[in-house]
Amino acid sequence: MKRAGKAFFTENLLIWNSEINTRNMPWKGEKDPYRIWLSEIILQQTRVEQGWPYYERFIKAYPTVNHLARASDDEVFRHWQGLGYYNRCRNMLAAARTISKDYQGQFPHTYESILALKGVGAYTAAAIASFAYGLPHAVVDGNVYRVLARYFGIQTPTDTTEGKKEFTLLAGELLDKTQSAAYNQAIMDFGAVVCKPQQPACSSCPLSTQCLAYQTGRVEQLPLKTKKIMIRQRFFYYIILIYNKQVYIRKRKEKDIWQNLHEFILLEQPCPVTQAELLASEGYRAALPGVSFKVEGLSAPYKQQLTHQTIIAQFLTLRGKGRAPALEGYQLVPQSMLNDYAFPKTITSYLEKSALGLTLF
User: Fold this and answer.
1) Coil/strand/helix, residue 177
2) Cα dist from 168 to 45, 226, 255, 290, 356, whole Å
3) Which domains are present in the chain?
4) Which candidate, 156, 166, 147, 158, places its Cα nearest to that of 210?
5) CB 193: neighbour CB atoms within 10 A?
6) From residue 333, how far is each of 240, 248, 285, 336 by CA, in Å?
7) In Å, how far are 201, 250, 275 from 247, measured between CA atoms?
8) What's this model's pTM, rounded to 2 decimal places?
9) Surface-to-core class of residue 263, CB atoms within 10 Å of its CB (0-12 exposed, 13-18 middle, 19+ buried)
10) Which SMART domains does the record match to this protein (predicted)?
11) 163 vs 332: CA distance, rounded Å
12) HSE of 282, CA atoms in CB hemisphere, 13 A
């Protein structure tokens, strides 16, 4: 598109932001780099509505990066519980401790030093650099890809090396370097409330007169992607073995989903099984050799969708008889103390509805 079209885009986007944009979020307009960083980490792969209360909870619990750096892993995971994608939480803790130790608790001031932090990519670094310090770095995320692909009619897939370079270069050209924070906020909000993935508000869009996708009827087709994510199904059967109001749990240490979170006795199966099949399985016999119990029933399935996996979990409650055995890798904890441990969302969803009980923040 010609230079005039690019100027029209930037000018009218900024006008829309200053005169029409009413999107409100607690971190909007924030200049504290710690709070900006915290909001961006929480909102990675998370809807604003879901992340909002977590942001407020973290700010209350950890008002500065040093407070976060000094907190224990288990405590922070407990606050994160329910957000999913726990690598974000691990990386956030690592970055906080780097800032506290290597930068004496002062958030880095350059794009390059921000980008070097654990878990911070180009988008997050650009957001922090522009919002906190007014540095001229353009954000490029899913909203930006969509807005630019539609307005400029870009056919290059966003998930290719060529596409990423093309969109990043274009985003930099469009950035108003004197108002980088306002521009970056404008394009992200515009993609969220006007140029939405489904049912975009084209009829009231201030850019529609020069939007190539709108003019050629290709709004629903853009942006393009080449790769199709293959979703793997996994069937988790959790044994909730109870002795005198105590239950067995363990911390997941394998390099798999939910690392460092807690769970009950897990029997993963290659396909769905019945309660009888589960109790007769080789995995059950190996996990609970010679345990005497009363069966209290198998729960309905609980489903959790991850990026590349679908977890389908069911919970079998067993009431143990006699003396509680020692199970390698597991510890017995009082049911009343389950709130003190961080569990994956699949398990917390079950616990909130079960007789075991769980109170989230």
Assistant:
1) coil
2) 20, 18, 33, 61, 50
3) 3-221 (1.10.340.30), 232-353 (3.90.79.10)
4) 147
5) 15
6) 12, 6, 23, 8
7) 52, 10, 20
8) 0.80
9) buried
10) ENDO3c, FES
11) 52
12) 2
Put residue 144 in one of left, alpha, beta given phi > 0 → left and psi -120 to 50 → alpha.
Answer: alpha
Distances (CA, A) of 221 to 72, 165, 205: 46, 21, 18
Nearest to 190 by CA among 21, 7, 6: 21
Residue 169 structure tokens: 């270069």
Q: Measured between alpha carbons, how far is 87 from 90 in angstroms, rounded to an integer? A: 5
Tell me the pLDDT tens digit for each residue of 312-333. 999 999 998 888 888 889 999 9
277 catalytic per annotation = no
d(CA 89, CA 35): 15
For residue 30, give the amino acid letter: E
Candidates 133, 317, 331, 312; CA nearest to 231 is 312
Output the furthest CA–CA distance in the chain (Å, rounded): 81
pLDDT digits (tens, 9 = 90+) for 8-40: 999 999 999 999 999 999 999 999 999 999 999
Q: What residues contact 327, with CB distance under 8 A and at least 6 apart?
A: 248, 265, 287, 288
Residue in 11, 19, 40, 263 annotated catalytic = 40
For 335, the 3-state DSSP assignment is helix
Give the integer Cα–Cα distance in Å for 166 and 130.
Answer: 21
- Residue 97: pLDDT over 80: yes
DSSP string, 107-137: PP-SHHHHHTSTT--HHHHHHHHHHHH----
261, HSE (Cβ side, Cα atoms, 13 Å) = 27
